[in-house]
Amino acid sequence: MRQHSPGVIERPEKELLELRQRVQELKRKLNAVVVAHNYQRIEVQDVADFVGDSLELSRKATEVDADVIVFCGVDFMAESAAILNPLKTVLLAESSACCPMAEMIDADDLKEWKGRYPDAAVVCYVNTSAAVKAGSDICCTSANAVKIVESVKNKEILFVPDKNLGSYVSRYTSKKMILYPGYCIVHHRLNAKQVLQARELFPGATVLVHPECRPEVIDQADAALSTSQMIQYAREKPGKIFLIGTEEGLLYRLRQENPGKTFVLISNALICPNMKRTTLETVVRTMEERRNIITIPEEVRLKAKRALDGMLAIR
Ligand code: 13P
Ligand code: SF4
Questions:
Q1: pLDDT digits 0-9 by tens, 9-35
Q2: Beta pairing, strands 89-92 & 68-72
């Protein structure tokens, strides 16, 4: 069991300070904001102007005033920012940071599945490419998936691509859910036995897992929540010890914002290699070279925006 080690890169203090300073200079020079997902390395979260979950980051993208948004996360997140805010330049801090789950479905797969279920509305997890969003009726994130599915008129829902999130939603809706067989390679690694073992080691602890986990893991948890919802839960609920079933990067904020509480990662396999590709060096280089600009064909962007706007309209 892992007690502590959110992705820290060991480097001399002087070097760290120089890199941090350089990011601040570049923010001024480019009139840029740096936004980061909750799973990013500590050093990246520390230079970000805003850190959040996928829903918060999408909302943020519509509010940003700066000319440039430097996105520290994975590609679909930066794409969402570019879809929602076409007048800004969106840079993906690390160009190779992708989401294997998002890559489990492409526009052709979606077309084929839609052909099989012509009466179903397509609800797509935000962890998808712009092209898949463009072929969907509405997007959702882990924070609002139940609400979004309930908001759709159709009785049948084709839910793509995360079968685990889709199965979690099925618990709270009477709609007929058709689940595409995608999954998150990180959360899917967690099994129920590991949760039970963790509970034995920390009797009375509260177990929080992400809805991308398998159903049998969710069965063993006290709550299944998006990353920022976990932060809110830990802040507001009375427990002292929390066993966490999501990517390890979240532990940084959990510990920082709740100094009197203990957070334990349930498994040391909960590391998303793609989220960890971004470092202070990649942020600096991307900003210096103004590289990794996200571009989306306008026809695709407009269709994908409809699906994202539909989601953001639901509070
Ligand atoms: P949230 O932060 O929206 O819960 O998303 C988790 C995730 O896996 C993003 O890739
Ligand atoms: Fe994709 Fe899972 Fe990594 Fe999130 S944690 S970026 S869903 S692989």
A1: 999 999 999 999 999 999 999 999 999
A2: parallel
Ligand 2 centre from 205 Cα, in Å? Answer: 26
Domain limit, last residue, from 153, 168, 184: 184
Q: Is the pTM of this model over 0.90?
A: yes
Rg over alpha carbons for the chain, rounded to the nearest Å, is 19
Q: Which DSSP state fits 293?
A: B
pLDDT in tens, 154-175: 999 999 999 999 999 999 999 9
Helix ranges (DSSP H) in 85-202: 107-116, 130-134, 145-151, 163-170, 192-201
User: 46 is in which domain, residue-wise?
Assistant: 13-97+275-289
- Which residues are bridge partners to 124 per DSSP? 139, 160
User: 114: which DSSP letter?
Assistant: H
Query: Could you tell me the two tokens for 134?
Result: 């463009």
Q: Whose CA is nearest to atom 9 of ligand 1?
A: 54
* Number of domains observed in the structure of the chain: 3
Q: Is 58 in the pocket of ligand 1 (CB under 6 A)?
A: no
Residue nearest to atom 3 of ligand 2 (CA): 272
Q: Are 105 and 179 in contact (CB under 8 A)?
A: no
Whole-angstrom Cα distance, residue 123 to residue 158? 6
The two structure tokens encoding residue 144? 């609002």
Determine, yes or no, domain membership for 308: no
Cis amide bond preceding 12, omega within 30: no
Pick the atom of ligand 2 nearest to 184's CA.
2
Q: Is residue 301 part of a domain?
A: no
What is the SS3 string spanning 46-57?
A: HHCCEEECHHHH
- 219: how many CB neighbours lie within 10 A of its CB? 13
Cα–Cα distance measured from residue 226 to residue 111, given in angstroms and rounded to the nearest whole number? 28
Rounded-to-integer distance, Cα 26 and Cα 289, Å: 10
